[in-house]
Amino acid sequence: MTRPPERGVRPDPDGRGAGRRATDVPVRPVVVLLGLLALAANLRAALAGYPPLLETVRAEQGISAGLAGLVQAGSVLMMAAGSFAGARIGLRFGREVALGVAVGLVGLGSAVRGWPALAPLVGGSMLLGFGIGVAGVLLTGVVKEHLAERAGAATGGYVVAMMIGATVSSAVAVPLAVVLGGWSLSLAVWAVPAVLAVAVWTPVARRIIRTGGPTIPPAATAGPVHRDRFARLCACYQAGTSVMFYGWLTWLSPYYESLGWTAQDAGFLLAAWSVAQLPAALLVPALAERRRRWRFWAGLTLSCGVAGTLGALLVPTPAVIGPWVWVTLIAIGLGAGFPMGLAVIAWRTPDGAASAATSGFALGVGYTAAGLAPLLMGLLIDVTADYRAAIGVLLVAAALQAFAIVRIGDRPAA
User: Fold this and answer.
1) Which of 20, 147, 251, 382 has the fewest CB atoms inside 10 Å of its own CB, making it the most exposed?
2) 246-263 pLDDT, tens digit each
3) Domains (range + CATH), the chain
C-alpha cells in the first residue's frame, strides 16, 4: 500500500523534491543569479592579485622569472584538475552544495598565502586554483539548470563579476602590500570576500535543496565527453582563449615594468585591462544570443585580441597614446572570449549535466594549456632576456582559437 504524504507535504512522483513542503516557494531566478554573482566575484580576484606583486616576490624570495611564473602556472593547472573533477563532484554532492565548498577552498588557499614564504605561496595558490576550477564548471551547470532561458546574459553577468573582482584585486595589490606591510598579507586579504560569498550562497543553496532537491543528475549522463566532436572543439577554443588570458594576466605588468614602468603604474595598467573587459563580456554574448551569430562575434573579438597583442609586441608604447589602445583591444578580445566559450556550451547542450560535463572537459583542457603558458613564457624570458618569444606563444594560441571558431560555426536556429 502506498503511504499517503505527510500533512503539508506535496507528492513528488519523480523524486526530485521529496519532502517538499507546500509552504516552500521555489527560489526565484534573480536570487540564484545574485548568489552566483557573489561567488563568481572571487574566481579571479585571488589570481589577479599576484602579477602586480610578482617582481616584489622575485626580489624578496630570490627566485627566477620561470619559478615566479610557476606559481601562477600551478594555480591554473590545479584549475584544470578541478575542471576535470567538477562535474563528478557535482554529481556526487549536488552542484549547489559543491559550488559553495569550492569557493570556500578559494578562501582557504588565499589565507594560506598569508605566510611570507615560497612554499605557502605555491601551496595556497594550488589549493585556490582547484577551488576555482571546480566552481567554474559547477557555475555553468547551475546556470543551465536555473537560468536556461537567459543563459548567454547570465553567463556574461557572472563573468563580469569575475572581472570586477580581478580589476579591484590588481588595482589595490601594491597599495595593500604597502599598507599591510608585505606582499603575503595583500594576497591573504582575498580570503575575506570568499568567506562572505559562501555565507550569501549557503541559504540560497539550502532553499534550492529544500524546494526542489539538489541538482544531482543521473549517473548515466556522465558519458565519455572527450569523444564528442563539439566538446573537443570547445576544448580547443578554451585552450586558445585561456592561454592568451592567463599569459597576459601573469606577464602584462612585468612586461611594462621591464620597459621602465613602476610596479604601481603597471598594476594600474593591468587594472585598466580588466576594466576594459567588462562591457565586452556583458554585451557580446547577449548580442550573439540575440542574433544567433556566434562565429561572427567570436571571430570579431578574437581579431581585436590579436591586433592588440601584435601592437604591444611591435610598438609597445606609441607616442601620445601609450599602450592604452593595445590594452583595450586585448581586453575586448579576452573579455568576450571566455564567456562566449561558455555561452555556446550552454546553448548547444541539452541539460545541466551535459553542460557541466562539456564545460568541465573544455575548461580542463583549456586550463591545462593555460597553466603551462605562464611557465613557458617565464622560461623564454629567462633564456632570451626578452619578451618577444614569450608573446609569440600567445599568437600561436590565437591561431588555435581561430581554428575552433571556424569549425564550431554559428548557433543553429532553435
Assistant:
1) 382
2) 889 878 988 998 888 887
3) 29-216+225-408 (1.20.1250.20)
